């Protein structure tokens, strides 16, 4: 067991280090020279997946990489989790907007962005591809190992959420790159990490489920003009994320939530 824990610790340490080096190494030049390094910036989005494949390849060879990517073939889980993955976060966005309007008289004129259902569907499909660059690493590689190392999903979710949030920090070095205040971004991203853990574990470690959840989250800025959101709206959204995470963990506390690597 000590050897297993040491192996997991070394793999995770190497993974997080490589993920940050690749992504930040791509993003910093891209942000400094936005007209010249668009492809480099795009490539940084795949740093988590690339890092996971490198570490698994070194540790377990081709079979390890195959096992990691076979998580995409886990499709047979309850239909309700498909609906949850796609619709849950958009629903929280809507509730946050309604609460912000009801309690703070927030107005949301011109909130909806132009876009047909076909455009939304195409954007969603594209986001699934882009977000695979993250989820192969964060949930496919790191989460199962963190759960084995830290024993409890709550600890694994917290640690992964912190790393996941910090990974996005370069976005805030360039004015206008994000409309979400940094503390509130950390608030709801770490909270989301707990929701991802529940979904990942309840779908037997399916990468498809968490990619759908990620796309369902990122599709909202393509539908809503989030630059109109106030700090209060983002705070409400973050609180809703945390309430949801706590409820989900309470509901499933007596059921197995550990997925083997």
Explain this structure.
- The chain is mainly α and 261 residues long.
- The protein has a domain at 78-251.
- Helix content is 74%, strand content 0%.
- The chain is built from ten helices and no strands.
- It has helices spanning 2-32, 38-44, 47-69, 79-104, 117-150, 153-167, 182-202, 207-218, 220-223, 231-251.
- The model has no long low-confidence stretch (mean pLDDT 89).
- Molecular shape: globular
Strand content: under 5%
| Overall pLDDT confidence | 89
Major beta sheet summary: none
Order of helices and strands: HHHHHHHHHH
**Helix proportion range:** over 70%
**Total beta strand runs:** 0
- How many helices? The count is 10
- The Cα radius of gyration reads 18 Å
Class per helix and strand makeup: mainly alpha
Low-confidence stretches: none
* N- and C-termini, Cα separation: 15 Å
